[in-house]
Design goal:
Shape: globular
Distance between the termini: 7 Å
Mean pLDDT: 98
CATH superfamily: Nucleoside diphosphate kinase-like domain
Bound molecules: uridine-5'-diphosphate, magnesium ion
Order of helices and strands: EHHEHHEHHEH
CATH class: Alpha Beta
CATH architecture: 2-Layer Sandwich
CATH topology: Alpha-Beta Plaits
Oligomer: single chain
Radius of gyration: 15 Å
Number of domains: 1
Strand content: 15-25%
């Protein structure tokens, strides 16, 4: 099954939304394949946000992402990358649809609660960026038949 990377940003950690956001992913039926807390540093963020290093807001983004430890998650499911992006909502919290995580928890284009991989290719690279192989668990819950029909697995 497909895997994707999610980061609970400092805006989620500091505001105390870890439980509520994690519950949304679990109630959807996504399987937690890896999860840990870590402090991000500038070197890693310059790689992770390489597409944004020349933007004027990058110094502020760096500061924001290092403001507290983060929680990184690897979530597993059919079409997990697309499903998690749908649950996440648009980048700017003020424009994100109500019902999405950013739409329900954020008023900001920067303090937007979580990161989620934007493509299958990015997800593969990002999971390796944040997790070692032995931190990703190839397990499947016993009730997986209640999550998917046989031809969906
Ligand atoms: N960001 C920002 N200002 C902007 C655009 C993006 O501070 O004008 C931050 C925001 O936290 C966003 C992150 O940079 O989540 C990565 O931007 P990207 O365009 O990849 O958006 P995402 O994939 O997170 O929706
Ligand atoms: Mg992105």
């Amino acid at each position: 099954m497909e895997k994707t990377l999610v980061i609970f940003k400092p805006s989620a950690i500091v505001r105390g939304f870890v439980g509520q956001i994690l519950a949304r992913f679990q109630q959807k039926g996504l399987i937690i394949a890896g999860m840990k807390m870590m402090q991000l540093d500038e070197d890693l963020l310059r790689v992770h946000y390489a597409h944004l290093v020349d933007r004027p807001f990058f110094p502020s983004l760096l500061e924001s992402m290092m403001a507290s430890p983060v929680i990184v998650l690897c979530l597993k499911g059919k079409d997990a990358v697309k499903v998690v992006r749908l649950l996440t909502g648009a980048t700017n919290g003020r424009e994100a649809q109500p019902g999405t995580i950013r739409g329900d928890f954020s008023m900001s284009g920067q303090e937007n609660i979580i990161h989620a991989s934007s493509s299958i290719e990015d997800a593969e690279v990002e999971i390796k960026r944040f997790f070692s192989d032995d931190e990703i668990f190839e397990w499947c819950p016993q009730n997986v038949r209640m999550l998917y029909a046989p031809d969906e697995m």
